[in-house]
């Protein structure tokens, strides 16, 4: 009788393969990384990669597919907060901390190289961007209604700019530099209501 697959063991092995692949893709590039090298780095047999993934592109996509449930959870948690500005900054903090990961610059470069070659990868990235955009836009709109955010701002456009600023942290990523204090400063000022000559919110 065939052995039943252990879901927890399978999930753990998929995650080990995905983590090993992310590191190697960032260091060597997609084309220069073999499935055998990924399996070895994950501590598994050479045929393991294609047991869990249909091909190498599916494995590359899995690096970013992991972001989808995490982004949904982040948005759900932060939009449940009472202070919209604090919730926006909490989202920014959690997203920007990934820029301190040593593999962040390399994996970003490889995404830019591979995006045009894999429509499914583009869909994953677009879906994740949309999830975060909706969360930021919801919070900006709420902040405008409560008077905490400049009413002249358009919620959806503002959400886009917040994401652009976060993306900038990845483009200039440095594992020895924490981008969060500067991001918080920039975004806080961006959202603030303008002051009149007396220094009071207009």
UniProtKB/TrEMBL annotation:
Taxonomy, superkingdom: Bacteria
Transcription regulation in keyword set: yes
One of the Pfam families matching this protein, by short name: TetR_C_6
Keyword Transcription: yes
Residues in HTH tetR-type domain copies: 11-71
Annotation: DNA-binding region: 34-53
InterPro entries: BetI_C (IPR039538), DNA-bd_HTH_TetR-type_CS (IPR023772), Homeodomain-like_sf (IPR009057), HTH-type_TetR-like_transc_reg (IPR050109), HTH_TetR (IPR001647), Tet_transcr_reg_TetR-rel_C_sf (IPR036271)
GO molecular function per UniProt: DNA-binding transcription factor activity; transcription cis-regulatory region binding
Keywords in alphabetical order: DNA-binding, Repressor, Transcription, Transcription regulation
PANTHER family linked: HTH-TYPE TRANSCRIPTIONAL REGULATOR PKSA, HTH-TYPE TRANSCRIPTIONAL REGULATOR RUTR
Name of the protein in question: TetR family transcriptional regulator
């Amino acid at each position: 009788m065939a052995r039943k697959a252990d879901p927890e063991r399978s999930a753990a092995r998929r995650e080990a393969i995905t983590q090993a692949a992310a590191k190697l893709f960032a260091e060597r590039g997609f084309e220069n990384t073999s499935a055998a090298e990924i399996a070895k780095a994950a501590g598994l047999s050479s045929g393991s990669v294609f047991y869990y993934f249909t091909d190498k592109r599916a494995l590359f996509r899995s690096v970013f597919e992991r972001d989808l449930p995490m982004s949904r959870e982040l948005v759900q948690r932060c939009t449940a907060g009472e202070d919209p500005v604090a919730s926006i900054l909490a989202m920014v903090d959690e997203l920007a901390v990934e820029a301190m990961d040593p593999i962040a610059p390399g994996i970003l470069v490889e995404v830019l190289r591979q995006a045009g070659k894999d429509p499914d990868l583009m869909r994953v990235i677009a879906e994740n961007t949309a999830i975060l955009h909706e969360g930021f836009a919801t919070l900006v709109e709420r902040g405008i209604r409560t008077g905490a955010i400049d009413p002249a701002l358009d919620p959806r456009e503002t959400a886009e700019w917040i994401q652009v600023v976060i993306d900038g942290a990845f483009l200039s990523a440095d594992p020895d530099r924490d981008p969060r204090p500067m991001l918080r400063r920039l975004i806080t000022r961006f959202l603030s209501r303008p002051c009149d000559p007396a220094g009071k919110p207009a």
